[in-house]
Write a structure and sequence with these properties.
By secondary structure, the protein is mostly helical. It folds into two domains: 93 residues, no CATH class; 72 residues, no CATH class. The longest helix is centred in the C-terminal third of the chain and has 24 residues. It is elongated and about 80 Å long.
Length: 176
């Protein structure tokens, strides 16, 4: 089932109240930013901070190592492109979220997806045809894409080799 960021925020806030965790959205900006840098901040607190009105706080959540894949998926749909730029940099981001970001309207976000080594070959294949040359360059540098390209070239080479071997034109055999 899909939830809107507002619905997720309401659910998380309700759960936090049940476990009697303080309402982090009432903290000052400075305190919220401090939480996004604290390695002991819980996933639940980060999920609440992901709904903060300050995009800088949301960027901090996107970069925090404890941020859950679910929270990253919410941040991937953020209205602020600075927040979306931070999301594909997270080491634990899911391939599904990366696939969503691969279609982002902002080339800087797609650039981040193209650089992420967890990006699927399918998403990289789509980004390989991106209008932005920097995105295409990052795809070419991504180890997952190189692997795919080498496999594809090997298959093409084998097919070409069979075609040449079956040819009656002897000059083609000198190519191999």
């Amino acid at each position: 089932m899909n939830y809107t960021p507002e619905q997720i925020s309401q659910i998380v806030l309700k759960v936090l109240k049940e476990i009697e965790e303080p309402d982090v959205l009432e903290l000052s900006r400075r305190e919220k930013v401090k939480l996004t840098k604290d390695p002991n901040t819980s996933q639940e607190t980060l999920a609440v901070l992901a709904t903060d009105e300050d995009w800088g706080v949301r960027c901090g959540v996107a970069q925090h190592p404890n941020t859950s894949q679910e929270t990253l998926a919410v941040l991937a749909t953020d209205d602020n492109f600075y927040v979306r730029i931070c999301v594909p940099r997270h080491p634990n981001i899911s391939q599904e979220t990366l696939a969503i970001l691969a279609a982002d309207e902002d080339s800087c976000v797609r650039y981040g997806v193209a650089r992420n080594q967890n990006t699927s070959q399918e998403s990289l294949a789509i980004l390989a045809t991106d209008e932005d040359p920097d995105v295409r360059r990052c795809v070419a540098e991504n180890p997952n894409y190189k692997k795919q390209t080498l496999e594809l070239n090997t298959k093409q080479y084998d097919a070409l080799k069979k075609l040449i071997e079956s040819s009656k034109d002897e000059s083609l055999k000198d190519i191999m």
